[in-house]
């Protein structure tokens, strides 16, 4: 029931994969990208964060940045650092972190499936972030970074993927950020490509795990090209890597808040939570939240009176928002309120301690990770999770696959 297609990937020369591959553009800022790309002319940051090659005072959203991205992409192709495959293939992408592996299929997904709700979302997007990627896609005439999708696992699909890995040597095999191993296999057997395409046609839905802005942007560019009568099968599809949900891990997405904490704060919490002092920095189960305040950790355990069966309301991020942030701190919209910030779980609870002890933030909350089943349930219900509910690790690197829209 979902339409997937192979594509002619623009990808690194085999000996350059580790030097080209870069973290996603949206998990680092411009200055971090400048540092990471320093001394590495092959880094994909020169395309995905093209402002690093322009004056530092220039806005990363200046039109010159997008033009520079297009120029750099063309330059990488001219120099042979990136090459476009001669035929359309599928690609296996395996990431291994801390002994756990997940293997996805790099492919092109349909913009029509997204419009029809067969590619399901669980987050709202922000217009300014969409515009950034729309401009990037248009300038490069390419989907320049992959969208991370999931599907409810199908044994036959995973069986084919595993057999290919076992019987073929990977094209790329390297370690990168956070000691993650990355391997890529090219599925160049037309029968296997046809079989996988047919099997996915029976998959009822795909789910956006990470990359809502990239998805919305890619779809809008494709639809615009149709209106302009400048579309083709490539621009009707967008670059994605799809993983079976049973191989994925969601990490916690923690919070720090900068608000005055009154002497009655703990008493205010008691209507919704039981409170215990602790040395634990991470909760043991859903319904528990660890709080760091004034150099002391506390366990907040949700009382039955605030628990909910609704797929969104039952999430720990919702319990925190509905019973602490909104009623006590007056933080109604975490997307725009500057008194709150979000800390990815890979940075650990020690980062929360550091931020609060510095005095820049007053209180921190360490959360239990949202379950993958929760994400699927919310998406299936057509609902939206609170912002920053999920943090996926390991991150899919950019630069290993680029999808040419072929409209120029």
TrEMBL record:
Pfam families: DUF1015
InterPro entries per record: UCP033563 (IPR008323)
Domain of life the protein comes from: Bacteria
Protein name: DUF1015 domain-containing protein
Organism: Candidatus Enterococcus myersii
């Amino acid at each position: 029931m979902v339409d997937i297609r192979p594509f002619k990937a623009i990808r690194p020369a085999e000996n350059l994969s580790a030097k080209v591959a870069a973290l996603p553009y949206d998990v680092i800022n411009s200055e971090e990208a400048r540092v990471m790309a320093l001394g590495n002319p092959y880094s994909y940051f020169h395309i995905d964060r093209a402002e690093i090659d322009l004056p530092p005072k220039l806005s990363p959203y200046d039109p010159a940045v997008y033009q520079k991205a297009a120029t750099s992409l063309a330059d990488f192709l001219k120099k042979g650092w990136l090459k476009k495959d001669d035929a359309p293939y599928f690609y296996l992408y395996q990431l291994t972190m801390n002994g756990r592996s997940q293997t996805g299929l790099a492919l092109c997904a349909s913009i029509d499936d997204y419009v029809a709700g067969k590619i399901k979302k669980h987050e709202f997007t922000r217009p300014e972030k969409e515009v950034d990627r729309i401009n990037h896609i248009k300038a490069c005439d390419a989907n320049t970074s992959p969208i991370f999708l999931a599907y409810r696992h199908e044994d036959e699909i995973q069986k084919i993927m595993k057999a290919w890995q076992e019987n073929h040597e990977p094209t790329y095999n390297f370690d990168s950020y956070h000691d993650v191993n990355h391997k890529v296999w090219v599925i160049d057997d037309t029968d296997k490509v046809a079989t996988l395409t047919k099997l996915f046609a029976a998959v009822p839905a795909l789910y956006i795990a990470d990359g809502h802005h990239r998805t919305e942007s890619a779809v809008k560019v494709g639809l615009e090209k149709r209106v302009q009568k400048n579309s083709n099968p490539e621009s009707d599809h967008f670059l994605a890597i799809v993983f079976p949900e049973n191989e994925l891990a969601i990490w916690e997405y923690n919070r720090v808040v900068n608000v005055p904490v009154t002497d009655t704060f703990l008493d205010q919490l008691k209507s919704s939570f039981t409170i215990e002092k602790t040395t634990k920095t991470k909760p043991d189960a859903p319904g528990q939240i660890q709080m760091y305040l004034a150099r002391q950790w506390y366990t907040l355990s949700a009382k039955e009176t605030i628990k909910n069966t609704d797929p969104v309301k039952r999430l720990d991020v919702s319990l925190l928002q509905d019973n602490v942030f909104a009623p006590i701190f007056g933080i109604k919209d975490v997307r725009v309120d500057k008194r709150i910030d979000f800390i990815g779980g890979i940075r650990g609870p020690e980062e929360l301690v550091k931020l609060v002890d510095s005095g820049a933030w007053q209180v921190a909350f360490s959360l239990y990770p949202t379950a993958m089943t929760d994400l699927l349930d919310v998406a299936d219900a057509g609902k939206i999770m609170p912002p920053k509910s999920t943090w996926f690790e390991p991150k899919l690197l950019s630069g290993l696959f680029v999808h040419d829209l072929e409209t120029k």
